[in-house]
Amino acid sequence: MAQNGGIRGKVLPALVLVLLAVSLYLVFYYAPTEAKQGVVQKIFYVHVPLAWNAFLGFFLVFIFSFRYLTTRKRKFDMRAYAAAEVGVLFNTLVLITGPIWAKPIWGIWWTWDARLTLTLVLWLIYVGYLMLRHYVDNPEKRATLSAVVGIIGFIDVPLVYFAIRWWRTQHPKPVIAGGKGSGLDPRMALTFWVCVATFTLLYTWLYRRRAEIEELEEELDDDGTDIATGTTVGGAL
Amino acid sequence: MISAAITILWKDLKIELRTKEAVSAAFVFCVLTLVIFNFALDMNSDEARRLGAGFFWVAFAFGGILALNRSFAIEKETGCSRALMLAPVDRSAIFLGKFIANIIFMFLIELLVLPLFTIFFDVPTGRAIGTLLTIFILGAVGFSAVGTLFSAVAANTRMRELLLPILLLPVTIPALIAAVETTSWALGTEMSVSFWFKLLIVYDAVFATACFLVFEYVLEE
User: Fold this and answer.
1) Which of A131, A152, A160 faces B146 most closely, judged by CB atoms?
2) ipTM of this predicted complex?
């Protein structure tokens, strides 16, 4: 299963590297600079794809947690872990790029806007999930407990979203100048979708690598003979 | 299953009646939180009335976590969790018993804090008492559903008590917002409130069901 050598394992990272270079070119040379926001707006091409992939990651955590509880196969637990870890990484980057974009445009680092707040709450939920994993030693127990939290945490997402949205509409809104959305320049749109594809593949690659490492660690922990024969670890070393 | 749940509920109530640990600690902590808010924010009486509902629920959330932590910590300390698992009853019965016990404890804490809240913040709780008690029950149910489940999760980790607030607070955010908004409305703020009541009820229903269904996985060893 975990084949990190061979052609198949190298295609995805190579593709990600090429696409990252293409994306950079598109963002800085091809896409026109936004009229009102200027060069700062370019962070949009990084910020939004990161956010979408973080959400995708948390959805994967939910799916794999559910599958773990129904099948009891350890690989689903490892996948849930990998998806959560890369998801939290992307989510953190969203929370860093967001204020960098907001400060020059809105004049503030942070606003309790529905999407921002939801992103922050998600980050808190899944950081809790990762902490929980860290503090349970028995792997079986860790898998079960974190699957439970992975499911409950995800069920909470729509409720948090509606609560924050409604809460927002009742409170004074900060000045939000919408720079994107309506009437996106076709060159901007193309750049944006290429970036979305790039970051989705980047997520996939990181997630796969993370899951592979987790499986290798598991094999080493479970059974020392693997080290002796060198069959499974050879590729990694 | 119902009779097993009642037995567990009864056991928890009896322990609490004899030790009075969970509710009294939570109550004192709630009062402290309210007092500290007062120092930290130095409000005039208008501001206090406007913001009171928020303080009440924040104090309750902090204090409630203290009590919820006891729920499974005592079972672990005394070795009772093993006995519970050996008992020939459905795991869901254990959840149900503990869940109802926690609802009662949470409701008690809310009731105990209410008079002090009324005095400290000079809010007209008297004339809205029926609505407030309804909100208290709805809040207690939502908080206890996830709280009971996560208390069992936290008790199984190395971090124990430290982990519960970290896991529980983000997940209870929708319920807390809804409880604050409905309470402000009950205390006289003009706003549309039906959405918040619906959200609170939906939250209770969704998490009571979900937590009931996944609880059996938490207790296995």
Assistant:
1) A152
2) 0.90
